[in-house]
Amino acid sequence: MTNSTTKFLLLLLLPTFLLIIFFYSYFFNQNNFNFNPTLNKLLKPPSNPSINISNQLDNNNHVRLRHNISFFTLLKKKLEKKEKKKKKKKKSNLEKLEEGLARARAAIREAARTRNYTLKEEVTTFIPRGSVYRNPHAFHQSHIEMIKRLKIWTYKEGEQPLVHHGPLSNIYGVEGQFIEEMEGKTTSNKFMARHPDEAHIFFLPFSVAKTVQFLYRPLVSYNRGPLHRVALDYVNVVAMKYPYWNASHGADHFMVSCHDWAPDISDADPKLFKNLIRALCNANSSEGFQPMRDVSIPEIKIPVGKLCPPSLGLRISKRQIFAFFAGGNHGHVRTYLFEHWKEKKDEDIQVYEYLPKNLNYFQMLGQSKFCLCPSGYEVASPRIVEAIHAECVPVIIKDNYSFPFNDVLDWSEFSIHIPVAKIPEIKTILKGISFKDYLKLVKGVRSVKWHFTLNRPSKPFDLIHMMLHSIWLRRLDIILPYQ
Ligand SMILES: *[C@@H]1O[C@H](CO)[C@@H](O)[C@H](O)[C@H]1NC(C)=O
Ligand SMILES: *[C@@H]1O[C@H](CO)[C@@H](O)[C@H](O)[C@H]1NC(C)=O
Ligand SMILES: *[C@@H]1O[C@H](CO)[C@@H](O)[C@H](O)[C@H]1NC(C)=O
Ligand SMILES: *[C@@H]1O[C@H](CO)[C@@H](O)[C@H](O)[C@H]1NC(C)=O
Ligand SMILES: *[C@@H]1O[C@H](CO)[C@@H](O)[C@H](O)[C@H]1NC(C)=O
Ligand SMILES: *[C@@H]1O[C@H](CO)[C@@H](O)[C@H](O)[C@H]1NC(C)=O
């Protein structure tokens, strides 16, 4: 036979051979299964395959299934596998994210139940221990789960100076430091999502402080219109462009601001902003701050070129001042405080409006046993963090204030809370604290210091991680619907 004849025969035989296999399998399959394949059907398998494979595997037929596998069952199996894979991929990103969150919730509950540390997964060197935590085990587990899983998408829309940029120092500095950290501009941020589909939460990186600085210059009007428009425009742009805001009605979106006016942005459209997580310094529950939804963040007067206030705390035995305050007459709480205690009416309660030039404010904090932290024009003030860094027990004189990180920290273990109405009783209250209890409070202050320490890049359990953890907890509280 010539070469060409062989080729011809092969060309003729091959289709015949395939046809035989086809019909053989057709009948074979028909005899054994309720299955009526056509090529078309096989290539586009029905969504609900008529072969009851799991059924078959359950009875004695399974041996035959394994060994008498035909070409078509093989092909079908392959297609089914592919379909399964496709379905798995089709399992929405949100479904995968929610499954991860469900595992995190379970692990946190388990840690709370067994009161155990999962030390085998040692992600951090810091271990929360002691009474300053509401539940150290659950908190530890939750923090680890957050580090393991949390992905944040920071929207790219918008331009400086109002977006992607904030003040880095002074009393609004936390705002800029946080924005910068999230954008990963100067430091890498392991929480950054590569794609919004893999994000659990979405950050709106506009700066209220910068908006006020640039749109209200000179500051002649306190009308909140321009501020409202910035926030509203931003949300409308990202809600038009991406599906994420609409999918959750904003419940997995957050903003961060230390500016007094920040809570006001919600008034731009209360319905639209109903679910938005607002991380605010001005955490005044009488001004619409909702502890279950919003996040209280500490205010820090960040020194230029530094990250935290000085730590000039002396040993307890060297602290000569019983209680100390120095600050402007800002707002009614201060006025009331000054009425009762200003300028050495009492040797023990040293309250100054203007500190004499020969005295150093931070040294004074470090020489004091108790540091008074009254509200100013707004509830928050940098004094709590200053006191903590000076290892001075904060005496918080505020009403309607939602304490930062209150979800995990028990503030009564490292601070004293005095309602504004009890300002005249400050001395009686503080003198009533035994030395033993005072030592316990100081110990508490020392152990929470790290949580009020700003690092760039941020480190586990530090200030920015604590802010993120508060937001993470809000996200764990909701389950987004998925198909
Ligand atoms: C598959 O099995 C289920 C449960 O045994 C049965 O109800 C169903 O009719 C079966 N489907 C086919 C196509 O045989
Ligand atoms: C394969 O099927 C044939 C006929 O359908 C049967 O006689 C034979 O025993 C089967 N082989 C095995 C290994 O089950
Ligand atoms: C705590 O964890 C350790 C190590 O994982 C384990 O050996 C121990 O049994 C656990 N204790 C409880 C009460 O679950
Ligand atoms: C989200 O909802 C708004 C208001 O209903 C609508 O204008 C916008 O187009 C929606 N966004 C997307 C991405 O569908
Ligand atoms: C605010 O504080 C005052 C004084 O303590 C209290 O009477 C009032 O109920 C508080 N309001 C809210 C919303 O917590
Ligand atoms: C908290 O908000 C209420 C309501 O706006 C206000 O009356 C109060 O003065 C605020 N507290 C402080 C300390 O600013």
TrEMBL record:
InterPro entries: Exostosin, Exostosin_GT47. Residues 75-114 form a coiled coil. Keywords: Coiled coil, Glycosyltransferase, Golgi apparatus, Membrane, Signal-anchor, Transferase, Transmembrane, Transmembrane helix. It is found in: Golgi apparatus membrane. It comes from the Eukaryota. One of its GO terms (cellular component) is Golgi membrane. The keyword tRNA-binding does not apply. Its main location: Golgi. The keyword Coiled coil applies. Pfam families: Exostosin_GT47 (PF03016). GO terms for molecular function: glycosyltransferase activity. Residues 147-431 form the Exostosin GT47 domain. It is a single-pass type II membrane protein. The chain crosses the membrane at residues 7-27. PANTHER family: EXOSTOSIN HEPARAN SULFATE GLYCOSYLTRANSFERASE -RELATED, XYLOGALACTURONAN BETA-1,3-XYLOSYLTRANSFERASE. Belongs to the glycosyltransferase 47 family. This is Probable glycosyltransferase At5g20260. It comes from Spinacia oleracea.
